[in-house]
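Can anyone check this?
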Amino acid sequence: MKMKKILITGTSGRIGSALASFLKNSYQVIGIDLNRGPFTTHCLDIADKKGIFHLTKGVDAIVHLAALLPQHINVYSDEDFWRTNVDGTENLLDACLKYNIKRFVFTSTTSIYGNAMVLPHQAVWVTEDLLPQPRDIYDETKLAAEALCKNASGASLSCISLRMSRCFPEEDRLMAIYRLYRGVDIRDVVLGHVLALESSIKGYEFFNITSQTPFQQNDLQELHGKADDVISRYHPWAKKAFEVKGWILPFIIDRVYVAEKAKKILGYTALYNFREIMDFSEAPKSQK
């Protein structure tokens, strides 16, 4: 049986390379990036429409991760952001329509919720129903690219935007804490992309992809000032585990990303959460 051909942009990046590595035995992977990498088969700017059209002919699906990121804001101009994040996305979508490519998965970000995630006296419950309020050029261009995906989708093209939460290496304590409410493991990000790629969704959909939070909506006020108590209520072992490491639990949590929609429609459940990132010596397996 002939393997399906998938084009992945951003394959020299951390997530793109992880996704390409995961899919390489199930798909014929074409990898695009400006920089060389083990899974990058073509060095190409996604703003190069002619080059994109050349490489996408005969492709069954596209997963689009390539982008300018928040760390590039002080390095590149706003025009550069629009050219890469928006025009580049449009080129790929145009190729889908031209060559009858059936599936387009776009890597977006929970960052687009922006100022909507700010409330004075409680944490914000961040589901897909929360209307985005972009704060910077990165947020603006990602939201604009989502709009392009929605507009391009239809009977012949399924587009899925994955609003990925915080997913990059940082200080161990922060990574552990963020798994409670605003972070995600790269392996779960890969899982979300694979589920989107292989789903039977028609038209357009968008999902938060994040870790599995223990918190509930009735915790939101207490999280803004007594987050340590809330964490201890769900994970009684956490305070001692933090103390062993010389850490303290946070007192304020300002938001809670929720992935229930992805769970319901895609079958997504994060596997690498707060418990998995901590030392199990203080986290008994029977503890819920």
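Reply from J.R.: I decoded it. The beta strands are 5-9, 28-33, 42-43, 61-64, 103-109, 124-126, 158-164, 204-209, 255-257.
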